[in-house]
Amino acid sequence: MVIKHLPPQEMEEPRAHFCDENPAQLHEDDFEELFRCWDLLLATGKFNILVNGLGSKVEELNSFVDIRLKDYPLVTVNGFMRSASARQVLDNIKEGFKMKCSSGGSTLEYAKRVAEELKTRKQDLVVLVHNIDGAALRDSTQQRVLALLASCETVRMIASVDHVNAPIMWDDSLLSQFKWASFNMTTRKPYVEELMHSDVRLLDGDTPGDEGAHTLASMNAMWASLTQNAQNIFCYLMRLVCKKDEKAVPMIELFEAAREDFLVSSMPVLKQQLVEFVDHNIITRKTNNQGDEDVVVTANIALLKQFLESKGCKLSSSDDEESDEDDA
Question: Domain Origin recognition complex subunit 2 RecA-like: where (predicted)?
Fold first, then answer.
């Protein structure tokens, strides 16, 4: 499939949209006009789309690609995720198009081979990068690889930035490769998905490892997506953690506590309820030395206590409180 190239005279109107500095929130009609403009720009093969502005832009960019570019092969990059990398993008392209080029050597050398094969095949491709300024993609190597892809004649790149200093990532050479047409896309939507996967450290910033990867804001975003049952099960887990003063809790012990309160009916149901917490690096499941399975809390305990107490979850059971009173 070949993207139609438009004559220069049809480009006059879209040029007026470049670098729009109007910070006003965009509405549905504005997006429709914006999307028509992007259609024209991408069709020329001379521009890629870069959006900025306050608020999450994930939903709008996904909508544009799903509706306007649904006939083209797509690679999506979630730059706000800690696991994001340019090499992962190259691997997806190579696998998707069943390329035979080698993936060895440096990432930049790998990118050159992929770009050359795309050019030889005249293969159209859309690359959507949410948060191209994300922490995992900010270094020069990642940006050079993405710029190389963006410079390919058959590649159309749509990307978003949120950091105020994002433009300093690119020198003149990179800018000439990216071929950005910049647009303001102020949505004022909460950064729900970005926060759930980000590595922002607003609290416990000096905590090493995975513990520092969570904040009250990211926990709130995750909590809002959970069922009441899952929330209650996590409260039970944290009560056991506090009672034992250990991060590891036997899975069977958590199951018995949850079943007693009619939260789960079987072990598979419990494990399914825990998937969301595993995905967000709050807990992990491990086999102990006795061969039994434990649920291990990997997030910062103090932060979890603070968060759950703000949600009204009592981390000490009534039995524990009565026992403390008897001892007194």
Answer: 26-183
